[in-house]
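Consider the tokenized backbone below.
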């Protein structure tokens, strides 16, 4: 049964890999991309989303622009991680298409409410759009099929502050609203994504394949690998978002625990910190499924196989 998905995204280098993986995977039907601020501005992210879809000959998929600022916090973008245009060293032609008219938040609500129980929302950026949708139409809680969120760090250190992961730190108030919304959430935190490191040898596997996809991946991830080397002494790059996307059709890649998870919005050094109440000290019911174990090489091989298939399909 094909799973109908929406991706809320801040493309972004690893976001672009998640979008390509969705297009390469027959198990999912990508119904649309809603863009949010984060790795770059919502305006730049919209251009990037349109360009990535055209690269993969999927320009029929709607793209809508969403929120460009967090709910409360000041704007925080990530040019040092994703480059000034959000796609590292990759330079795609300006998109021929434009974003669909209307706001991304209204599109999320319309898609979920007109397809009750059908839509899986994959949120791989700051959760501002999703939080706004919750306030505009609280019934999405009952009508969304599931929500897969790339974000948080449970036992793992933060990647943006010592205690906070980027998507959660950029808009902690939105994360707090979404985590406590009652939606059926699967959280994909740094605990598992930091075990998924794409390296040069992996990228070299795509060399020589047809279409512009291999070169795009090489140019985008080269910048991302330089960042990981300089700031975190990692040989390769952590591809967070495609792992979250893969779990919509290959959940067996990870092991999960039902946990009560909260996010710190009190401010200060722990702003955006996410934690699970493993010992039930707060006596709260679990509010999500958390991916805490993973089979990294199994995922990386799946990702690369799908990129090979997509390159051959697009290039033919
Ligand atoms: O912390 C990693 C997350 O923040 C990823 O989604 C990355 O694209 C950035 O949005
Ligand atoms: Ca992202």
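A designed sequence for it:
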């Amino acid at each position: 049964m094909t799973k109908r998905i929406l991706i809320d995204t801040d493309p972004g280098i690893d976001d672009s890999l998640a979008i390509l993986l969705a297009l390469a995977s027959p198990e999912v039907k990508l119904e649309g991309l809603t863009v949010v601020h984060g790795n770059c501005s919502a305006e730049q992210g919209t251009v990037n989303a349109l360009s990535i879809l055209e690269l993969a000959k999927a320009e029929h998929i709607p793209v809508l622009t969403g929120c460009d600022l967090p709910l409360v916090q000041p704007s925080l973008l990530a040019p040092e991680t994703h480059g000034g245009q959000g796609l590292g060293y990759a330079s795609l032609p300006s998109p021929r298409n434009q974003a669909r008219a209307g706001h991304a938040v209204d599109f999320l609500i319309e898609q979920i409410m007109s397809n009750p129980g059908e839509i899986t929302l994959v949120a791989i950026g700051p959760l501002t759009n999703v939080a706004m949708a919750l306030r505009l139409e609280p019934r999405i809680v009952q009508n969304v099929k599931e929500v897969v969120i790339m974000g948080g760090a449970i036992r793992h250190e933060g990647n943006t502050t010592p205690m906070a992961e980027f998507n959660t730190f950029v808009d902690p108030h939105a994360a707090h609203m979404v985590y406590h919304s009652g939606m059926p959430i699967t959280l994909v935190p740094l605990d598992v994504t930091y075990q998924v490191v794409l390296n040069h040898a992996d990228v070299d596997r795509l060399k020589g394949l047809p279409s512009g996809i291999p070169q795009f991946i090489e140019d985008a991830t080269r910048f991302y690998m330089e960042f990981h080397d300089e700031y975190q002494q990692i040989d390769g790059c952590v591809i967070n978002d495609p792992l979250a996307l893969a779990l919509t059709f290959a959940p067996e890649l990870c092991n999960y625990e039902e946990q009560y998870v909260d996010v710190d919005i009190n401010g200060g050094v722990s702003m955006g910190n996410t934690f699970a109440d493993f010992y039930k000290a707060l006596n709260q019911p679990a509010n999500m499924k958390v991916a805490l174990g993973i089979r990294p090489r199994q995922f990386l091989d799946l990702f690369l196989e799908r990129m090979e298939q997509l390159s051959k399909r697009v290039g033919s």
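Residues 213-232 form the longest helix (20 residues).
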